[in-house]
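Batch manifest, entry 17 of 40.
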Amino acid sequence: MSSRSVLRGRWLYADYRDYVIVSQADLREYRQQLRGLEVHLVVLHPGKGVVITRESAREKSRRHKQKHGLTIGEHFAHLERPLVEQLTSVGFWIDNAALAPVATADLILANRDRARLE
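Output type: C-alpha cells
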C-alpha cells in the first residue's frame, strides 16, 4: 500500500511495508527488492526506554497490551540490541528522544545525503 502525505509543505512519498530490518542480512534482502532505486536508511533511535514510554501512551499500544500482555514498544524492545550491533554504521541515525516530530523531519531532510545507501 502506498500513501502520499504533506510534511511542512513538502511532498513526501512513502511506500509502507511491514518489514523489520535489524541485521545486515535483513538489509541486503530488502535492498534486493529495491534494486535500481535510490535507497536511504534513517533510523530513529531514541532508546528502548523512550520507545516503551511513548508507546505505552498510545491507544493502539494499550489494546495490544490487553490482547498480548505487552505494549508494542515492549513487544519489540528486544530488537534494539541486534539493530545497534549490526547496523550502527549504516545510514543516518538520529537520537530523537528530545526532538519534536517536525524537528526530526527537518533533520532527516537536511541530512538526506548521509542516509543514502551505496
